DNA sequence: TTTCAACACGAAAACGTTTTCGCTAAGAAT
DNA sequence: ATTCTTAGCGAAAACGTTTTCGTGTTGAAA
């Protein structure tokens, strides 16, 4: 039950001043070898470690990164966190996690909780509700207060900051081209509503791939699922919707789905309808998660490299933090900075498994 | 690029003292209505928010909980985090996350990084390597420094602290009993090596269920998988091992697996061997994750209620924190405290799906 | 003997709060 | 006219650091 020991206590115990203790512990040559030895021994004995909070206050930086994501029980997001934590730790930072739960208000509350000194910068992915409202003032507000933000995956042009995104467009193009080259003639797209930029880009990629092969996209082959409600708990609805979709379009021989849940559900429905995979119908999903890997047949996917995204984001943020630390007094107007912001695009990769030929 | 405004700046701007500003903002009646109004208006205009770090230093508490888990890309653990974050947020706390990556050293490093003032208490689950080494001094050390710990899932008797665990034993009993009642005559167990207590308990539950039905456990029907190496990247090995197991025990008509990966792999192998599920062979897995839900056939599982575990753990920890805050100067010896520690057992629940009759 | 550098250390400020205590002035009570 | 309240505010300490700037002592150089 003994509290952690402080400089002051060591000083009192050894009958020297606080400054002396501090200097001795940092091996300052101002202090004689004798006292240094004595102090260091004592400190080691009592397992002295400087108090982080005091350091944060003094240095006006916390060595902590705030992560703000919509959801944590989610393969992609947790992979990104792992990447962030990896480089953060390596570079001496901690990570503090906030969940917006896809809610605009929770996003704001979380940001305000953290922006008051608790962290040095944010890495975040925007909540669906925020994307719907298109209200980004809280991001710009915290940036204006001198706190850097790095956005990933769900980003938005209205905010000037570093961004790390998946090449959704080209990922889709690659996937759909693969289906075309595998001789699929009627390729369906199962996607979400458009307000999440990510979904929109993937849809565009689908169309682009078709057009590059002189195929005009058939609107009937595009199924837009309303994911505003909790899909995980309405699995049957999803299944029914896809089944209906398959039935009214009997000639589908290829499916590109914008996430793995839609993809495996499509496979399930296909099999139920007596289609065999990949012989009668081939399936590719975006997002390479556990489902894809362990489904039967295993699913060919477009991998997003979540961990790499996290690593990049963390490096970007920390780079900016140390830069701000060194330039320090130099003054930039916002306009000068603007051009500085980096948008890193992480290339996707097709992981071939059993659901394609 | 304007830094956040401080009390001092407000004071200077309004030509009053810092104390006056502080009091006015907390509506102290020491300050006249006039000045209070003036100060509050000014503060609101400049969006003043007290600096958390300064508060932490002054109050000697950070209102932050440290979470230390072996892995984050993992359905169970991320579910627990969600539960922790939920109640933490509701009760005014933040969460800071550290990953041990199943490594003893990283666990220690992370603890030391956080234990120096950054957090008020820990919620953690022990890494495999630590369990192997059975070296728990770092836990006891931080507890002795006055920092409370709540352990969940992977806990250990050698450390005196609050614990939240899954009823692994009874969960297994329930599962295996269900298989027995479903007329399985030769029930196999697919489990891990024993050093993770969780695995051991589940094995014991399996045996207990059999014995309660006067069946003597057949050692040949128990497959222990060495998960010390990264299973996710050696899927084929796992598959082969299980296939071999099935072949040498041709009469298996029920499988209980201690995690969902083993369970779905078992289903895969079973189907490959021409067995139909659940007619020829029924399968139940521990851990209710995405795989179970979306496998075909979907998997009957023992749900651990990860979110509930997280919520309980957070409540336990925060309760103890506020208690420590109020009792404050009262002094307890470790022995007196010992009896105080709570072990909460979260009951499991069988979620019936298609892999059982 | 005087001067000077080097050495070894301490005092104090600063980071941003909250809170206790003290002080002044004005009005009330004596 | 003197004392007492009370309202309204400021000074200062404290939380635990680091760092700058003294300051006193010592031995050597002059």
Rg of chain A (CA only): 26 Å
By CATH reckoning, the class of the largest domain in chain A would read: Alpha Beta
Which structural category fits the helices and strands of chain A?
alpha/beta
Mean pLDDT of chain A: 93
- Estimate what percentage of residues of chain A fall within beta strands: 15-25%
Provide a count of the helices of chain A: 15
Query: Helix and strand succession of chain A?
Result: HHHHEHEHEHHEEHEHEHEHEHEHHEE
Integer count of domains of chain A: 3
Q: Total number of β-strand segments of chain A?
A: 12
Overview of this protein structure:
- Two copies of one chain form a homodimer.
- Chain A is built from 15 helices and twelve strands.
- The first copy, chain A, has 357 residues and is α/β, with parallel strands linked by helices.
- Chain A has three domains: 44 residues, no CATH class; 149 residues, Rossmann fold; 137 residues, 3-Layer(aba) Sandwich (Rossmann fold).
- The first copy, chain A, has a six-stranded parallel β-sheet with strand order 2-1-3-4-5-11, sandwiched between helices.
- In chain A, helix 2 packs across helix 3 and helix 5 runs parallel beside helix 14.
- The longest helix of chain A has 22 residues.
- Chain A starts with 6 loop residues before the first helix and ends in a 6-residue tail after the last strand.
- The model of chain A has no long low-confidence stretch (mean pLDDT 93).
- Chains A and B meet through helix 4, helix 5, strand 2, helix 6 and helix 12 of A and helix 4, helix 5, strand 2, helix 6 and helix 12 of B.
- The structure holds a DNA duplex (30 and 30 nucleotides).
């Amino acid at each position: 039950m003994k509290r952690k020991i402080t400089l002051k206590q060591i000083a009192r115990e050894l009958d020297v001043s606080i400054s002396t203790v501090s200097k001795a512990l940092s091996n300052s040559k101002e202090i004689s070898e004798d006292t240094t030895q004595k102090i260091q021994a004592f400190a080691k004995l009592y397992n002295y470690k400087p108090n982080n909070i005091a350091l944060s206050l003094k240095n006006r930086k916390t060595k902590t990164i705030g992560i703000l994501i919509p959801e944590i029980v989610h393969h992609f997001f947790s992979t990104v966190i792992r990447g962030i934590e990896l480089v953060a730790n390596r570079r001496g930072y901690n990570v503090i996690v906030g969940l917006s739960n896809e809610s605009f208000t929770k996003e704001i509350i979380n940001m305000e909780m953290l922006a008051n000194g608790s962290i040095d910068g944010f890495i975040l992915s925007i909540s669906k509700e925020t994307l719907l409202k298109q209200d980004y003032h809280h991001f710009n507000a915290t940036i204006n207060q001198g706190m850097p933000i790095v956005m990933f995956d769900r980003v938005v042009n209205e905010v000037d900051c570093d961004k790390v995104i998946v090449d959704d467009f080209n990922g889709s193009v690659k996937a759909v081209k693969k289906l075309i080259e595998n001789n699929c003639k009627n390729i369906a797209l199962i996607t979400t509503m458009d307000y999440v930029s990510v979904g929109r880009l993937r849809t565009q990629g689908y169309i682009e791939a078709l057009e590059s092969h002189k195929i005009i996209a058939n609107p009937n082959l595009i199924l837009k699922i309303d994911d505003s409600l909790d899909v995980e708990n309405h699995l049957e609805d999803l299944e029914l919707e896809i089944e209906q979709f398959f039935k009214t379009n009997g000639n589908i021989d290829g499916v590109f789905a914008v996430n793995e849940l839609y993809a495996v559900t499509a496979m399930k429905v296909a099999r139920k309808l007596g289609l065999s995979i990949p012989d009668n119908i081939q399936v590719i999903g975006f997002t390479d998660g556990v489902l894809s890997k362990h489904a039967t047949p295993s699913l060919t996917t477009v991998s997003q490299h979540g961990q790499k995204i996290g690593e990049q984001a963390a490096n970007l943020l920390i780079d900016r933090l140390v830069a701000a630390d060194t330039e320090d007094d130099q003054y930039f107007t916002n306009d000068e900075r603007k051009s500085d912001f980096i948008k890193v695009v992480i290339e996707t990769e097709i992981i071939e498994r059993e659901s394609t030929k």
